[in-house]
Amino acid sequence: MNIRSKTSKNNRQGSKKCITISALATLVLTGGLAVQSADAHWYQWYRSTGVVYTQSNIPTPNGNSILGFRRDALGTLTPLPTASFPTGGAGIPNAPIVGGGPVAITAFASDQEVIVNPEKTKLFTVNSGSNTIAVFDIQKDGNLSPVEGSPFPSGGVAPVSLGLAGDILTVVNQNLLPQIPAQEASDSLPNYTTFRVTPRGRLISIPNSTASVPRGSLPTQALISPNKRLLFGMDAGTGLLRSYQILPNGRLQQSPNSPQKLPPAAFPPNPLGLTLGLQVHPRQPILYVAFTLSRQLGVYAYEPDGDLHLLKTVPNSGLFICWIAINRAGTRLYTTNPGDNSVTVYDIAKDPSTPVEIQRVVLRGEMGTGGAQLTLDATESFLHVVSQSAVNIMPANNRISVLKVNQYDGTVTEVSSSPRLIPSVNNSFPQGIVAN
Q: Which residues are the signal sequence here (predicted)?
């Protein structure tokens, strides 16, 4: 009798352990989205720790670096023991390059300056001031070590954006930085160019892969489609939307109706027409475009060959909508609006072609600071935003803001420890952000 009672008790305890393990397994399989139990809550809390990287962008010879921060489960950022990893190149100074006043295009008119591969074993970043690309191995503890041969020539002048399609790396060379004397005399044109990435991370130039665009185009982004067969780009200086097919040999072939002029809705009546951010839906052939000064989000459908068709535009309550991020499920879209230092949240679950704004959050920070690039972490528990000081104003206000993502409705709340200040060196400003 006693043996049976003891056995029954052990079985009940074993069942309880199995239920706990099952709950954790379910959470893993659903990507941390189905938070149903105390076990699941604990596991999501545990998984939400990680590492955040941004680029210091210091514009002195060999002064550029990647800054690394450990993020705890509450969203607090703490510098890694080795907080700075030299890129072997130079960044670019914070100075206007086109226009003036509130519509100045500054040197941070770009996105995807720092990216990681899907396996999160390699980190790539631009050295905009020295025309090179740095590649790092990501260690298990978050530290970075440069791969052999890094940094590599970018194939042009002033690289500002990177896109990875399998083992093909696309580089956007913007070539519009007159404040850098060494680049003023260059005869090269802005371009998109591709490289083969070897298993060890070395970059091998692909012959005849460079697609040049006219001088003054100000290309800003190398956005890759989910199937890795298309590249989308924006000429912020001329208001043209571009699409390319990425051929099996790594070369770029311009799509049928590329470049495409933006619709009149993208431009307000008087100021400079400026368009910056691009993002693709993870499941549907839809491209989202930030019509910056008109405070609208453009929605395009795209064909398998990259042919683009405007579907509609929707309003954004923020000022100067710029960069865009989307969660993996394709249910929420986030934008940064540097004009009022805010983040806007859209519902795209019901109809991805008709984003519905559900929230706008103003980030903490002093006047003269505006949110720029943004990214979700691997578990989509936190949204991270690089905020940069206005041109030559209060450079001490460079920072990273961290927002907690509500796992039920996708809205965001800035965590109590946010923002994390980033010191300015020689009028530097951070650019690009990734979070593991």
A: 1-40
Secondary element (H or E) of residue 46:
helix 38-47
Task: Please report how the helices 38-47 and 2-29 are oriented relative to each other, as an axis angle in degrees rounded to 10.
Answer: 50
Q: What is the pLDDT of residues 238-273, one digit of tens each?
A: 889 999 999 999 999 999 999 999 888 777 654 555
Reported as half-sphere exposure (CB side, CA atoms, 13 A), residue 11 has a value of 6
- Diameter of the chain by CA atoms? 93
Helices (H) and strands (E) in the chain, counts: 3, 34
**192-245 pLDDT per residue, tens:** 999 999 999 999 999 999 999 998 888 999 999 999 999 999 998 788 999 999
CA-CA distances (angstroms) from residue 335 to 59, 193, 316, 349, 409?
Answer: 28, 27, 9, 16, 16
pTM of the model: 0.86
Residue with tokens 């083992």: 167
The residues spanned by each domain of the chain are: 17-47, 48-435
How many angstroms separate the CA atoms of 412 and 359, rounded?
Answer: 8
- Running DSSP on this structure, what letter comes out for residue 103? G
CA angle 352, 356, 359 (to 5 degrees): 130
Neighbours of 95 (CB within 10 A): 16
The pLDDT, as a whole number, for residue 409 is: 96
Among 229, 187, 185, 230, which residue's Cα sits nearest to residue 212? 187
Question: What is the identity of the amino acid at 327?
Answer: N
Q: Please tell me the predicted confidence (pLDDT) of residue 370.
A: 76
Residues pairing with 405 in the sheet: 412
Q: How many percent of the chain have pLDDT more than 70?
A: 79
- Residue 366 to residues 341, 344, 369: CA-CA distances in angstroms? 9, 19, 6
Structure tokens at 192: 């998109």
Q: Class assignment of domain 48-435?
A: mainly beta
Note whether 59 and 108 are within 8 A (CB). Answer: no
Give CA–CA dist 306/27, Å, rounded.
36
What Rg do the C-alpha atoms of the chain give, in angstroms? 22
**Whole-Å CA distances, 225 to 154, 165, 233, 288, 305:** 22, 8, 11, 12, 11
